[in-house]
Design goal:
Length: 590
């Protein structure tokens, strides 16, 4: 064979070998982009594969994807095949990020792409070109967060309303995707759900007519003072805008542009409650309230029960403070109160009432006054504290023993007539006798004698064992502290345990128990409660970081459970976790 023929055959074989090789590459539409732009990443292969595994896209939100496309063609007898997985990404922050390797399996072989480095810069300015679809999308769609008050008091209700404004020049025909959801840290929060279908309103924005929809409404109660940040709501929205091309009638064809739009962060400044004229019994109530103390009966007999109800009604942070405690005479037996509430959360905040119902049982006959009970709250509209008192209640116990009453039997015995001496004065002397033989058997060395004598010796090992066990238990200081701490935890969490299975009532009681425990241990008032403050105080008291983290996790569970459904199993786990956390804090705190 001639050398020229050998060379041609070798060249054709090389081409076939190259064509049969698997190609799997990653391509990005741009290597540098602004934080307000989006990026498309394509993973392309020249042979069909299985088990495609994309990278994690760290530093980006996946706006759309994976979208899959396949193309196959025949040109001059040669076939070509291409399969592509594409993703639309939106950067979360500025910096340099790496899109790691993707993998695919072809003929039992694993193939990987090469990593891509992407630089995310500050927001870039889109050229003001009326024919540029990106510019039209930015100029005609706006996401706004409206805050009712930017300078509220601590624990005063504010509302945040997110509105999406769309001009008449563009349209949105497909649903949008939520990329970032505000978590409202440092706030007690609850979303307000609208009933029915989302409505479209007509309005103006920057002096121009717009349509808008209300995406989300939330009520917030700030839990700390100073500058607080309301995190942004960020959406990826497909927007239909006029494109550059026109139809046969000269009208511009619509083209779809995906834009990431954010409402932006909002900062509010929370004012502390004034210290001047602050009542001693103030427990953190902020709003407008009515206060009442009542009983279901005022006249009864001893050992009968009556119900005494302490009630606060109005608008304000009803779920975030405690009702005044009850202090009655010792002759009135009082049981732990039962909490009852009916609180609705609307756009104006919490509204409704909370009750503490006590069961009271008098022990003796008499008249018992229940002194007026006071309740203090801060009215943000009037910017001052108000203290209201209940009326005095008189409890009349008509039937029953009288306290400190002398013993009737003793009085009756002392009042008996003395026996007068007369001729028959000796009639009380018995004249008949019953003689008993003095020849009784001797008790010494009897069976009963030996039993009584030997039993103490048999009990000595048990006494020693019990004594050793008791000394060991008393010397076990760690165990003693654990038992004491566990008992204290269950005392604080008794109300939460009674509400297992009732999600809202359980987490309200759990959150109140955690706050009450910290108030008692750290000697701080409700208005000073914040996650940072609690963390600092527990760290200063030598509580381990893991225990502090578990405690903060419980508080977050209580917050999220207000609007996130949970199971009975999860509630039981949170209860057991709370018992363990309070026990650990009580053991470690110094």
């Amino acid at each position: 064979m001639r050398p020229k023929s050998v060379f041609i055959l070798f060249f054709l074989f090389s081409i076939g070998l190259v064509q049969s090789q698997v190609s799997f590459v990653a391509k990005a539409t741009k290597k540098t982009l602004g934080i307000n732009e989006q990026l498309q990443v394509n993973f392309e292969m020249n042979q069909d594969g299985d088990n495609f595994v994309p990278p994690k896209f760290k530093g980006f939100n996946v706006v759309r994807g994976p979208n899959q496309s396949v193309s196959q063609s025949w040109i001059n007898g040669k076939s070509s095949y291409s399969k592509t997985y594409s993703y639309i990404l939106a950067p979360k922050s500025q910096g340099t990020f790496t899109i790691n390797q993707a993998t695919i399996e072809v003929d039992d072989q694993i193939y990987k792409t090469i990593s891509l480095n992407i630089l995310v810069t500050a927001a870039v300015t889109i050229p003001k070109d009326a024919n540029n679809p990106d510019y039209l999308a930015i100029e005609n769609v706006h996401l706004i967060a409206e805050v009712s008050k930017i300078n509220p008091y601590l624990n005063e209700a504010i509302t945040v309303v997110y509105k999406l404004y769309v001009s008449n020049d563009v349209s949105i025909t497909r649903s949008w995707q939520e990329i970032e959801t505000p978590k409202f840290e440092d706030f007690w929060s609850q979303n307000i759900a609208d009933k029915g279908k989302q409505q479209i309103f007509e309005g103006t924005f920057r002096g121009k007519p717009y349509r808008y929809v209300i995406l989300r409404k939330a009520v917030l109660y700030p839990q700390k003072t100073g500058a607080l940040i309301i995190e942004p709501l960020t959406l990826d929205i497909p927007i239909d805008v006029p494109g550059k091309s026109r139809d046969i009638f000269g009208r511009r064809r619509m083209t779809r542009v995906n834009r990431t739009i954010s409402a932006g962060k909002r900062t509010i400044t929370v004012k502390p409650l004034p210290l001047e004229e602050k009542p001693d019994n103030f427990s953190g109530a902020v709003g407008t309230f009515n206060f009442n103390v009542s009983t279901n009966k005022s006249t009864l007999d001893a050992n009968q029960a009556l119900e005494l109800k302490i009630r606060v009604e109005g608008t304000g942070n009803l779920k975030l403070f405690n009702l005044p405690s009850l202090n009655l005479p010792s002759s009135l037996e009082v049981y732990e109160p039962i909490r009852d509430n009916k609180v609705a959360v609307n756009i104006k905040g919490m509204n409704g009432f909370i009750n503490d119902t006590y069961t009271v049982i008098p022990q003796y006959k008499g008249s018992y006054p229940i002194r007026p009970i006071t309740f203090s709250y801060f009215d943000p509209a009037l910017k001052r504290y108000k203290t209201v008192s209940s009326d005095e209640i008189i409890i009349q116990v008509e039937k029953g023993p009288v306290p400190n009453q002398p013993n009737k039997l003793k009085d009756a015995a002392s009042s008996e007539n003395t026996i007068s001496l007369a001729n028959d004065q000796f009639k009380y002397i018995k004249t008949s006798t019953k003689l008993i033989s003095i020849n009784r058997p001797v008790f010494f060395k009897t069976t009963l004698f030996w039993c009584i004598t030997g039993i103490p010796f048999l009990l000595i090992p048990f006494i020693i064992l019990i004594g050793n066990t008791r000394r060991k238990r008393l010397s076990d200081l760690e165990g003693k502290r654990f038992r004491k701490a566990t008992k204290l935890a269950k005392k604080y969490l008794s109300e939460a345990k009674n509400n297992l299975g009732k999600q809202e009532a359980f987490y309200e009681a759990l959150e109140r128990a955690l706050h009450n425990y910290l108030r008692a241990k750290l000697d701080i008032v409700t208005s000073e409660f914040s996650k940072e403050k609690i963390t600092i105080l527990l760290a200063e008291r030598k509580v381990k970081e893991l225990v502090v983290s578990d405690f903060m996790g419980l508080l977050k569970s209580c917050e999220f459970a207000r609007y996130t459904p949970t199971s009975d199993v999860m509630m039981k786990q949170d209860y057991e976790k709370a018992v363990g956390v309070i026990s650990n804090i009580d053991k470690q705190i110094q």
